[in-house]
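*** Protein under study ***
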Amino acid sequence: MKASSLRDMTRDELLQKLSQLREALFNLKFQHVTGQLENTAQLPKTRKDIAQILTVLREMEQKPAA
């Protein structure tokens, strides 16, 4: 997921995407613990996507003040 595409999204869309990614991360962790996860590279990728969304949301909060 590119940060530029995230910046084009509205705040509500970002929050919805964040919720989806957090749910997906929970499911990936669950699969990893039970030994069912085939592609373990999905875990850090999902964490990175969550961090990018949180960063863009924080930038949106700071922008009106600047």
